[in-house]
Task: inverse folding
């Protein structure tokens, strides 16, 4: 982790990063959830941010999406960034395609919108109302809505947490596939170690206001959760999270 | 053999059914209609058998006769139209003003600070208290009537619109802002459609209340309208017409309700499709 100078402005931002956090601090009452965080994310890098509930994962993501201001430090982000939340957050009163192209003006948005829906396998649902979709389908629409803008930074706020186990696996594959094709920088916030290890190029464990572990995962995709290398990573990440597996995962 | 090693099977029974019991639709409909029908029969019986004087309560037959009298003289349409125009104009003015104010204060912090407190103060004043003041301002002509109806319908419209806009899912609004929707495009594209159920419910309540405004307005200085008919009936002591007017008001109320229901079905197609998930 390179902790560069705190005082950077946009003009001097190096072009090889899409996210730069310097000395970012955020407290809620007496609790300091982020304590002088430094983080650079490279273009196309898939970063997973792990941490138990209440450690400030989502706060960090909200800082990046502009929904919260840091108490101290600098937050620099690229101009085009989109978010997929835990809930689909679709506008029930607009059809699926209109939800995907929301905020974009006029007819030209239609074709890319349909293309994005095709990519998530929902081209035939373009004219449907969101209420008719299943939870997984709605989340795929939310993914299409985020991708259609061709973001330089894609923020994923526990996007699989509310899905059932089977749908979750399919969604994870879809996200891995689409991110590999479009190559946005991704920050995935999750509390699922396996998910992080299957998807990310780099996994960071957030604990007690700082990064307890920041590790590059140089394994080829697609990954197998029983691969010894993955198992070793999992053990390290779990222990960084403060969880000691009672029996070694190899015993499965 | 020890007691612990033997598991005795209990006597089995079918579980008592605790789910919702299905009900015959026709039976349900019949039961629903039975009480009003009984009241009608009681009305007819007591008034035609001298148990209740027709001076006190006209019989159903007399009311129907009075109805046909009105239809044949053409007064029913004339009076109905006059009332409809007043109510329509008054509601249109009151509802659109309140809708705009409700949206402004529901959508923007500044709007809320400027509008809400004032409107809430006006809202608690019973609009009937404004009758003398309005007469002195507008006279007893149409302007007074329309203004009274407008004020009567504005209050609930404002309150429900404001509430509706406020109860739109903050998370969805937050997401829409993240995708670049701001200002009036956010209002028209996301907030208003999401608040539409509340807004239409407000419209339904407004139209009901505007009938009260209509009665109050037509008691004064009217020469046509259903409220005027009530006044006439009172002056000439025509009990049949008094009851007929009540029946007409009831029918108008039901009619208005049906129209709004139809609007609700056509204006919000997304509510008819599937069950809403987050």
Result:
């Amino acid at each position: 982790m390179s902790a560069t100078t705190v005082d950077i402005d946009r003009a001097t931002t190096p072009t090889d990063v899409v996210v730069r956090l310097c000395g970012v601090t955020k407290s809620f009452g007496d609790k300091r959830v982020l304590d002088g965080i430094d983080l650079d994310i490279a273009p196309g890098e898939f970063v997973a941010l792990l941490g138990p509930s209440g450690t400030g994962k989502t706060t960090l993501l909200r800082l990046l999406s502009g929904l919260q201001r840091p108490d101290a430090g600098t937050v620099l982000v690229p101009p085009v960034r989109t978010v997929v939340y835990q809930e689909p957050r679709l506008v029930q009163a607009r059809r699926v395609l209109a939800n995907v192209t929301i905020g974009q003006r006029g007819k030209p948005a239609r074709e890319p919108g349909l293309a994005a829906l095709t990519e998530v396998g929902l081209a035939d649902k373009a004219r449907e109302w969101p209420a008719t979709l299943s939870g997984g389908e709605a989340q795929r629409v939310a993914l299409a809505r985020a991708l259609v803008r061709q973001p330089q930074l894609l923020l994923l706020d526990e996007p699989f947490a509310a899905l059932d186990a089977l749908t979750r696996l399919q969604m994870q594959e879809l996200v891995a596939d689409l991110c590999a094709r479009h190559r946005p920088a991704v920050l995935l916030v999750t509390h699922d170690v396996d998910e992080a290890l299957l998807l990310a190029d780099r996994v960071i464990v957030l604990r007690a206001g700082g990064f307890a572990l920041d590790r590059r995962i140089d394994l080829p995709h697609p990954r197998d959760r029983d691969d010894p290398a993955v198992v070793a990573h999992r053990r390290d990440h779990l222990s960084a999270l403060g969880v000691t597996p009672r029996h070694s995962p190899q015993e499965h | 053999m020890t007691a612990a090693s033997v598991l005795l099977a209990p006597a089995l029974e079918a579980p008592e059914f605790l789910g919702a019991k299905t009900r015959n639709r026709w039976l349900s409909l019949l039961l629903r209609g039975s009480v009003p029908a009984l009241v009608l029969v009681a009305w007819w019986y007591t008034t035609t058998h001298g148990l209740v004087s027709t001076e006190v309560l006209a019989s159903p037959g007399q009311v129907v006769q009075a109805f046909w009298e009105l239809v044949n003289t053409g007064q029913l349409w004339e009076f109905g139209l006059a009332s409809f125009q007043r109510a329509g104009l008054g509601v249109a003015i009151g509802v659109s003003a309140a809708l705009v104010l409700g949206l402004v204060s529901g959508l923007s912090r500044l709007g809320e600070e400027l509008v809400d407190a004032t409107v809430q103060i006006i809202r608690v004043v019973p609009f009937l208290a404004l009758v003398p003041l309005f007469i002195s301002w507008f006279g007893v002509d149409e302007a007074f009537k329309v203004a009274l109806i407008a004020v009567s319908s504005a209050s609930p419209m404002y309150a429900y619109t404001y509430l509706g806009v406020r109860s739109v899912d903050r998370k969805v609004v937050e997401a829409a802002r993240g995708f670049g929707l701001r200002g009036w495009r956010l209002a028209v594209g996301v907030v208003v459609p999401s608040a539409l159920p509340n807004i239409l419910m407000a419209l339904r309540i407004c139209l009901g209340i505007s009938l009260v405004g209509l009665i109050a307005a037509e008691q004064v200085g009217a020469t046509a309208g259903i409220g005027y008919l009530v006044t006439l009936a009172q002056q000439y002591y025509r009990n049949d017409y008094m009851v007929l007017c009540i029946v007409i008001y009831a029918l108008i109320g039901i009619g208005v309700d049906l129209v709004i229901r139809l609007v609700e079905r056509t204006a919000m197609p997304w509510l008819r499709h599937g069950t809403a998930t987050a």
The longest helix of chain B spans residues 183-218.
